[in-house]
Amino acid sequence: VVYKANVKQIITEETNSSSSNGSSSSSSNGSSEPSIRATGVRLADGRVFRGKTVISNATRWDTFEGMVGEAQMPESEKLFRKRYKKSPSFLSIHMGVKADVLPPDTDVHHILVETWEQMEKARGTLFVSMPSLLDPSLAPPGRHIIHAFTPDWIDAWQGMSPEQYEAQKEAVADEVCSRLEALFPGLTAAIEFREVGTPRTHRRYLSREDGTYGPIPSRRPLGMLSMPFNSTSVQGLYCVGDSTFPGQGVNAVVFSGFGCAHRVAVDIGLEPGWPAVDKAYASLLNFVRDRS
Fold first, then answer.
1. What is the rounded distance in angstroms from the CA atom of residue 281 to the CA atom of residue 28?
2. For residues 13 and 40, what is the distance between their CA atoms, to the nearest angstrom?
3. Local structure of 71: helix, strand or coil
4. How confident is the model at residue 187 (pLDDT cuts 50, 70, 90)?
5. Given this model, what pLDDT does residue 19 score?
6. CA dihedral angle for residue 188, residue 191, residue 195, residue 198, rounded to 10 degrees
7. Which residue has the higher pLDDT, 29 or 20?
8. Buried b (16+ CB within 10 A) or exposed e, 115-134
9. What is the predicted pLDDT for the residue at 113?
10. What is the pTM of this model?
């Protein structure tokens, strides 16, 4: 296990385009695209780790544009970019407040939308979660935790000096807290700790392009079939996380992890499978998905 490995490249090699009996080969997801295989990763410090299987939990954009490279990008991934776009990131505020600012019957979760016209715009909707209302041990005695967050785009945080960036963080946080006063009167005065994260924070610490929360459809999707599964058109390369079926959210990403582990285990022979059925089913899904 290498922590903070900072993978910069997924190493690929071209594979034989035909099998020994002269039939065309295809990747593990049933695609008939020209075959390349993932054979390892290269870290930022130059070290190389080789393996038969590479699993990426980065976004689809970071995986194929950043680590595989445009020149090696399969056609299926180019089509993915036509079907999906990056969702915004979030501005997140974590606060520690005096407990008496929250009445005993306060609900744990809130969504604040002042005007419907602003609902889908940056910072137009505020989401609030207060886990210490369910488990008081999460906060010191007489205190509560408030997590407030709102969709935001990284463009609004670019081109600033460090001083301007910090000042803008505090100014936007002040505005958000002022809006939350409608739900919790006296909130601003009750704050004892406040930490602000922006889309740049998400990009830096989560290594996600533009700090995006994940893909969202750019046009009407064909149900859940539009989401790619864990296998990719690069042999030996699998994706896991919110860029794969079933999408965003904790439960969905956990499901993706289970699905990816099972898919890899079947493909390398650790679990029983039906290769002919798998290949036919994957080919059918790809056919439908790539034409959706």
1. 11
2. 10
3. helix
4. very high
5. 39
6. -20
7. 29
8. eeeeeeebbbbbebebebbe
9. 95
10. 0.80
Residue 20 above 60 pLDDT? no
Q: In the chain, what is the greatest distance between 2 CA atoms, to the nearest angstrom?
A: 76
> Which residues, in sequence order, are CB contacts of 281 under 8 Å at separation 6+?
30
Rounded to an integer, what distance in angstroms lies between the CA atom of residue 250 and that of residue 257? 11
Tokens at 35, concatenated: 């075959």
Q: Tell me: the pLDDT tens digits for 83-100?
A: 889 999 999 999 999 999
- Count of beta carbons in the 10 Å neighbourhood of residue 159: 8
> What is the reported pLDDT for 22?
38
- Whether residue 113 contacts residue 125, with contact meaning beta carbons closer than 8 Å, is answered with yes
Contact 256, 245 (CB under 8 A): yes
248 and 213 Cβ atoms separated by less than 8 Å: yes
Q: Residue 33 above 70 pLDDT?
A: no
> Residue 161 has which token pair?
């000096």
3-class state of residue 37 by DSSP: strand
The answer to whether the CB of 114 falls within 8 A of the CB of 237 is no
Residue type, 202: H
Considering only CA atoms, give the Rg of the chain: 23
Predicted pLDDT at 157:
96
Q: How many residues does the chain have?
A: 292
- Cα separation of 216 and 23, whole Å? 37
pLDDT digit string, tens, across residues 112-133: 999 999 998 999 999 999 999 9
